[in-house]
């Protein structure tokens, strides 16, 4: 018997969490938050034997300290995911305190996690209970990301987490088990394709070069974990000062402490070492006085040093702001694309952006066709689609018509014999 209860991430992207129950064990796979105002959390869990984390993004790990506060259970995750998730959890708590939101855990709870965390390697079995075994596979999404296989009661359940089926500069492509009985698969890009990565890189570099030749600054907002480091690798041969700012600096150090978490640690070490780290507000004022490249958080322009740079550059038509990720609804990045202005939440200041605005698709998720191919290769008896808008899940289901496909609602429980 296998029961799957969807505590979050059903027909939506955010607060991913799945309760997996077998005759022998109860395991939580991910426990994230959704970055609403205030953040929303998964449905509660009353009991579990363990928690397994796919990767350190807040929509998958942001609620783990609250779970730990209630249930002192082991948390299985990769070594770099441990460091990165703690960094994000502390930062999330700090932001929530500043905004006056209620707190469900403390900094002490985050620090206390380490004592109960089990650091895992890929392709290795970890016995949770007598008859339940976890195995982690490289997911290709960000450093330390994993797909999780649970073997219990002669059933194999595989949860992709967020997955990327092709190589990037930073990460090797995802690996999957040859066969599984129940496949739980993300659907973020279930209705969309991606342009060829090589073409995207060429167009991105051309845009940066054109900006520099105009005498402007190329401001490149990036997610701290994964995207910023990949962009440094893409920009490796640019003959220009490249500045790195925000949480991406600490994230890069953590990855370098775990060289097994990236495709080529020596190249990453080179580009991180060659970048100029911005360490003060005064330094931020100086770097924009000459043509340069600035890679900084936050990737969706909601907070972080990027707003400080925008405050100085927004009237300069020779400079560019180059978005490198999807901009969700209600984010500053979406506001910039749709209406041409941004809001500095700290000051409440609203300003129009006269810079050249560009957006490139450097997605760390598999496309529609890649997800379909992934599912068919594992030939599961049951497929469950999560982590996607309803239309994305349905588009995938339509192309998996020969399989038993489930698209659960929030709180729904699926029973499999």
The major β-sheet equals: 7 strands, mixed
Rounded mean pLDDT score: 97
Count of DSSP helices? 13
The unreliable regions are: none
**Strand ordering within the main sheet:** 6-5-4-3-2-1-22
In angstroms, what separates the terminal alpha carbons? 5 Å
Overall geometry: globular
Query: Going by CATH, what is the homologous superfamily of the largest domain?
Result: Ribonuclease Z/Hydroxyacylglutathione hydrolase-like
The radius of gyration over CA amounts to 21 Å
What class, by secondary structure content? alpha/beta
Tell me the count of domains. 2
Features:
about 425 residues; alpha/beta; Metallo-beta-lactamase, Chain A; Rossmann fold; seven-stranded mixed β-sheet; about 25% strand; globular
Provide the fold topology.
Blueprint: E1 2-8, E2 17-22, E3 26-29, E4 50-52, H1 58-61, H2 64-70, E5 75-77, H3 79-98, H4 107-112, E6 117-119, E7 125-129, E8 132-138, E9 146-152, E10 155-159, E11 182-186, H5 197-213, E12 218-221, H6 227-234, E13 242-245, H7 248-257, H8 265-274, E14 276-277, H9 281-287, E15 293-296, H10 306-313, E16 320-323, H11 332-339, E17 341-344, E18 349-352, E19 356-359, H12 368-378, E20 382-386, H13 390-398, E21 404-406, E22 413-416
Parallel strand pairs: 3-4, 4-5, 5-6, 10-11, 11-20, 12-15, 12-16, 13-14, 13-15, 16-19, 20-21
Antiparallel strand pairs: 1-2, 1-22, 2-3, 7-8, 8-9, 9-10, 17-18
Helix pairs in contact: 3-7, 7-8
Walk me through this protein's architecture:
The model has no long low-confidence stretch (mean pLDDT 97). The protein has two domains: 2-192 and 364-416, 4-Layer Sandwich (Metallo-beta-lactamase, Chain A); 197-359, Rossmann fold, CATH 3.40.50. The chain contains 13 helices and 22 strands. It is 30% helix and 23% strand.
């Amino acid at each position: 018997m296998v029961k799957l209860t969807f505590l979050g991430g059903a027909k939506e992207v955010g607060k991913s969490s799945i309760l997996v129950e077998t005759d022998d064990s109860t395991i939580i796979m991910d426990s994230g938050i959704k970055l609403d105002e205030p953040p929303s959390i998964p449905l509660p869990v009353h009991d579990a034997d363990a928690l397994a984390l796919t990767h350190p993004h807040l929509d998958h790990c942001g609620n783990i300290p609250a779970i730990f506060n209630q249930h002192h259970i082991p948390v299985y995750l990769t070594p770099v995911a441990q460091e990165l998730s703690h960094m994000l959890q502390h930062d999330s708590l700090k932001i929530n305190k500043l905004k006056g939101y209620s707190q469900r855990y403390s900094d002490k709870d985050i620090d206390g996690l380490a004592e109960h965390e089990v650091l895992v390697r890929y392709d290795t079995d970890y016995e949770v209970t007598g008859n339940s075994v976890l195995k982690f596979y490289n997911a290709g999404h960000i450093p330390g990301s994993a797909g999780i296989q649970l073997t219990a009661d002669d059933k194999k359940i595989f949860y992709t987490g967020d997955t990327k089926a092709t190589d990037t500069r930073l990460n090797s492509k995802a690996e999957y088990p040859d066969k599984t009985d129940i496949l739980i698969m993300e659907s973020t890009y279930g209705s969309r394709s991606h342009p060829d990565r090589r073409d995207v890189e060429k167009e991105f570099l051309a845009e940066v070069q054109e900006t520099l030749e105009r005498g402007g600054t190329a401001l490149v907002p990036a997610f701290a974990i994964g995207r910023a480091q990949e962009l440094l690798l893409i920009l490796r041969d640019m003959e220009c000062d490249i500045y790195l700012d925000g949480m991406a600096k600490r994230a890069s150090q953590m990855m370098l402490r775990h060289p097994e978490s990236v495709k080529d640690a020596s190249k990453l070490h080179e580009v991180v070492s060659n970048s100029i780290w911005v360490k003060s507000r005064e330094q931020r004022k100086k770097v924009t006085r000459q043509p340069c490249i600035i890679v900084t958080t936050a990737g969706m322009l909601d907070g972080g040093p990027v707003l400080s740079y925008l405050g100085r550059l927004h009237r300069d038509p020779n400079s560019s702001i180059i978005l490198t990720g999807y901009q969700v609804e209600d984010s500053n990045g979406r506001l910039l694309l749709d209406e041409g202005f941004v809001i500095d939440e700290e000051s409440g200041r609203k300003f129009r952006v006269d810079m050249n605005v560009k957006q490139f698709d450097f997605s760390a998720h598999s496309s529609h066709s890649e997800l379909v191919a992934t599912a068919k290769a594992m030939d599961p008896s049951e497929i469950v689609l999560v982590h996607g808008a309803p239309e994305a899940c349905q588009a995938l289901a339509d192309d998996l018509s020969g399989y038993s496909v489930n698209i659960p609602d929030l709180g729904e429980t699926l029973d499999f014999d």
